[in-house]
Design a protein that fits this description.
Two copies of one chain form a homodimer. Chain A is of the alpha/beta class and about 375 residues long. The first copy, chain A, folds into two domains: about 150 residues, Winged helix-like DNA-binding domain superfamily/Winged helix DNA-binding domain (Arc Repressor Mutant, subunit A, Orthogonal Bundle); about 220 residues, 3-Layer(aba) Sandwich (Dna Topoisomerase Vi A Subunit, Chain: A, domain 2). Chain A contains 13 helices and 18 strands. In chain A, the strands form six sheets. A six-stranded mixed β-sheet of chain A has the order 11-8-14-13-15-16, with helices on both faces. A three-stranded mixed β-sheet of chain A has the order 1-3-4, with no helix packed on it. In chain A, strand 9 and strand 10 form a beta hairpin. In chain A, helix 2 crosses helix 4 and helix 3 crosses helix 4. The two termini of chain A are about 20 Å apart. About 0% of the residues of chain A have low confidence. Chains A and B meet through strand 6, helix 3, strand 9, strand 11 and helix 5 of A and strand 6, helix 3, strand 9, strand 11 and helix 5 of B. Chains A, B: Relaxes both positive and negative superturns and exhibits a strong decatenase activity. Chains A, B: It catalyses: ATP-dependent breakage, passage and rejoining of double-stranded DNA. Chains A, B: Pfam families: TOP6A-Spo11_Toprim (PF21180), TP6A_N (PF04406).
Chain lengths: ~375, ~375
Amino acid sequence: MMKAKTRKPKAKSKGKETPKQIAKKLEGIGDGMVADIKKGKDPSFKTQLRGRSNVEFDEDRGILTLGDKETTRNFLNIGHARKFMQTTMVAAKTRDYLNQNKTASIREVYYELKHTVPNSKENTFDGQTESDAVIVDLEHSVNTIREKLNLHANPKGTLYGDITLKDKMHHNDKFNCAKLGRGGWSVMSRLEPEEIEIVSVNAKYVLVIETEAMYERLVEEQFAKKNHCILVSTGGQAARGTRRLINRLNSEKKLPVIVFTDGDPYGWYIYSVIKQGSMALAAHSQYLACPEAQYVGMTLHDVETYGLENVTERMKDGDIKRAKEMLEYPWFKNKLWQNQLKKAIREKIRIEQQALANKSLEFVATEYLPKKIKEKDFLP
Amino acid sequence: MMKAKTRKPKAKSKGKETPKQIAKKLEGIGDGMVADIKKGKDPSFKTQLRGRSNVEFDEDRGILTLGDKETTRNFLNIGHARKFMQTTMVAAKTRDYLNQNKTASIREVYYELKHTVPNSKENTFDGQTESDAVIVDLEHSVNTIREKLNLHANPKGTLYGDITLKDKMHHNDKFNCAKLGRGGWSVMSRLEPEEIEIVSVNAKYVLVIETEAMYERLVEEQFAKKNHCILVSTGGQAARGTRRLINRLNSEKKLPVIVFTDGDPYGWYIYSVIKQGSMALAAHSQYLACPEAQYVGMTLHDVETYGLENVTERMKDGDIKRAKEMLEYPWFKNKLWQNQLKKAIREKIRIEQQALANKSLEFVATEYLPKKIKEKDFLP
């Protein structure tokens, strides 16, 4: 079970360094190892311990964080040697990326470094999970996020509304996301301020939407303009780039964030990852989470309020299992979410965003969302 | 097994009508039924027979088409009555959409029309598959595509390069897709010329890319500018909107289309759907297919040519089964594809686009693609 912990915020040391400075830090790790070897010492590498045992929920800040437990890996320990080699390979490669101003997806790094060690049958990496784990180790040991190591995950998500961005790495393109037709801007995997500047934003809040289809509905209904907001669709679980965008709209531009997903444990989990961060990336919640986010729907109470009994669906076993797990998470330990989750487990039904079309196509845009948002009828 | 057939192209009657004219056609169906009822006759509804037995491969045009077999549904036939009701419901609703200038996703139509018939326990629709089937029937009976009935599927896909679009339904926004930073334009579900105009395009060809990650790689390498092309990423199987975009770039703008997917049966199937159309939508290939498309890679021969033996993956059983099916499709009945598929079944390996990173990150952009495209080293 997840621990809840109250402690003072860490100084925000991360993220101020230039690519060259981070490259220097990576070189520092290598220099230390070389020095150890020259002294006849066993070279070692220190990183933070991951896994649930070291993940904490910081109640003051409302985000998941990684605890202080550390782990050391030694080259001359047979159990560590392989991972040690992998770590130095990825460190050297990302150092090169930073110096050459190149970026790579984490799958590309895996492929770029995979080979059979000469005169052996040993592969450097046997699968991407191995290189992914090493990347997380490196993030911790140089105290940064992968985007600042010039690595990234796959992109997903769309942005629409009166917001002007500038891509400093692409001819300083400046574009307003309300003027790209109904399609909107395809959110990149990399949303760091060093690369993408939020030039201006003219909105009262950000509405984050789980499905692309609902996003298109709200665009067609001119919801952004009529309600003075920005629309971000995640297309399911939000990608890192999209989470970083939401985080920046909230922290830099002070925009409230309102999340709108399907009414089921999967949708609620999408919300919780946007709000508190994820366990796998607990160390980076300050970049990726948005603790002030609020949840507008769908809730199972909406089913009764709006007479949607006819358009619910049965929850799958996996959903019910997930709901039971979520009951135990500290950040769902409040009355409203406990009620919601217990209701889901009891009634075994789910309700999709698009089910609101049962009232009328425009109902979601003209009644459901405006009313709930005006009355602040949110879950925390 | 799929039939191959050579016959004269049908006149392209579809797609010239205005929304009002299509609404009139839908009303015509209803008027006919009312007239039948008034005459004491059993009202009926005629549509094309679907399913593989009526799907043909038109060798002259290089696309899948639907044959001439028709089927009639009668209201007073107990086996037809439910579907008859569903058809009239969807026809009436899409007539309303057209008259009100509204559009809807096919999931929204399902939700909008789903209810329990008063004084009964009968639901109008028990699942989206029922309404989806009725939509296809209607497309056939008024000889159009769902987009022109103001219906659409979910969007997916991204567009990048020196192409200027205008969205006539959204303030006539005009934007150039090379000037939206590295993110690009998020392709809509609706790409009909009545809505989205291709104002200008400055490119020698269109490169269609299966994965978002490879798309980002090529954007970073400035591939579009250096090679004077447009990039379209499909993010897996191409959505209808993206297929329509590719179709229009080829048919309206006469741009050659080159497809670049993972080297496995799934990737090759993505290619074949872009090129010849799909069996499920055989009636609409003229809008959605692109018979002139060519395939640049990945091929299993690339593995040997570029020494990628170390970064192949084992094919799953499902992939092998799919490859065996594809051997029998008429449009794969040529020596090059038969060789490719047999090689896959024999060696049971697959090779991803991103595996080219094993040479170097930029290899795909500076050597692999330029060389193969220059030498027209394509599969048909």
